[in-house]
Amino acid sequence: MSANETPASHQPPTATYDSAFLKACRREPVPHTPVWFMRQAGRSLPEYRKVREGVGMLESCMRPELVTEITLQPVRRHGVDAAIYFSDIVVPLKAIGIDLDIKPGVGPVVAQPVRSREDLARLRDLTPEDVSYVTEAIGLLTRELGPTPLIGFAGAPFTLASYLVEGGPSRTYENAKAMMYGDPGLWADLLDRLADITAAFLEVQIEAGASAVQLFDSWAGALAPVDYRRSVLPASAKVFETVAGYGVPRIHFGVGTGELLGLMGEAGADVVGVDWRVPLDEAARRVGPGKALQGNLDPTVLFASREAVEAKTREVLEAAAGLEGHVFNLGHGVMPATDPDALTRLVEHVHTQTAR
Fold first, then answer.
1. Rounded to whole angstroms, how far apart are CA atoms 290 and 202?
2. Taking the alpha carbons of 36, 243, 8, 292 in that order, is the dihedral positive or negative?
3. Count of CB atoms within 10 A of residue 307's CB?
4. Choosing from 17, 52, 119, 281, which is the catalytic residue?
5. In this structure, are strands 150-155 and 212-217 parallel, antiparallel, or unpaired?
6. CA distances, 131 to each of 26, 137, 156, 219, 252 (Å)
């Protein structure tokens, strides 16, 4: 089911349905190109750093009132067209009992990596009760946000598997790839289990009130297309298919995935996120018709002069001029040292330049 088809049992929230963001996701005419930023909730904002003082990342994801405040901060400051739920891609793994922590300056670290079929048995199903704080936080958020859509999100099966098998961040993914190539049966079962967990996590968010969802396959760019199609696409497709009946737009994003854009579109998303390496008009050719695109200003451009930012933004908007639907975003997350005022100006500039 596409985002244009809305089953009667899951009618979208009327307050957000006609927002510029959701219209763009559905490839409908918009009053202006909508804007939001990946990692917009925090990192570069001093008010974010203040409320996070002394609170670990995973703990902050489990405090509904803190999640609400952090999610709202960039909406208040920048005037973006959508909020994204403040969380982390490893939250559902922590919720089902995996011993992991997010170490500052390192990232998620797993105490006992998944390397065998016995290890796979530790990945139990995720239930709504495991993440009741998510339901509570989204309830608080949707009341505060009103007509501004809330984007729920999750990590894609491949990226979660990479962390689980490697035991933490990796540049080469040698253990994950060794399993994928050397024990394809175990690998397929691992990704299928993670697809179920991921889909359940997205369902909790949608049922609590999220107006759209994004699947982050942060590390899929490490794969060759043939390996992605055979060993990753089925699990991502299962996630998208599981939540299709809700009728909310589904976004798929990965870093360094220029060679995979067509395959990522095949996985079932309504919107394909594009990093800064491929112009949006070329990305549209690779993805094919029937999909909106999201992106794709290089995050480092924001460190340049205002004139340079506006010039590079024009390039993105010109490349997007012929798209069926376009959501403006960076080609990856906001970098921590980014000037928040530069983000605010960028939102204003895109809105002004694209006003219909």
1. 23
2. positive
3. 8
4. 52
5. parallel
6. 29, 10, 18, 25, 23
Read off the pLDDT of residues 92-108 as tens digits, 9 standing for 90 and up: 999 999 999 999 889 99
Mean pLDDT over residues 277-290, rounded? Answer: 97
Q: How far apart are CA 355 and CA 43, in angstroms?
A: 29
| Residue of 26, 39, 193, 250 marked catalytic | 39
Q: Could you say which of 85, 133, 163, 228 is catalytic?
A: 163
Output the pLDDT for position 13.
54
Residue 194 one-letter amino acid: L
* 230 Rama sector, left if φ>0, alpha if ψ -120 to 50, beta otherwise: alpha
Three-class secondary structure assignment of 12-49: CCHHHHCCHHHHHHCCCCCCCCCECCCCCCCCCCHHHH
Output the CA angle 51-54-60, nearest 5 degrees: 60
Does 277 qualify as catalytic in the annotation? Answer: no
Q: Does residue 39 have an active-site annotation?
A: yes
> 172 is written with which tokens?
């080469």
Rounded CA-CA distance 188/268 in Å is 19
Out of 17, 88, 298, 345, the active site residue is: 88
How many angstroms from the chain centroid is the CA of residue 81? Answer: 15
Instruction: Give, in order, the Cα–Cα distances in Å from 24 to each of 198, 283, 299.
Output: 25, 17, 22
Residue 77 among the catalytic residues: no
Instruction: Give the pair of three-digit tokens for residue 296.
Output: 């794709």
pLDDT, one tens digit per residue, over 106-153 is 999 999 999 999 999 999 999 999 999 999 999 999 999 999 999 999
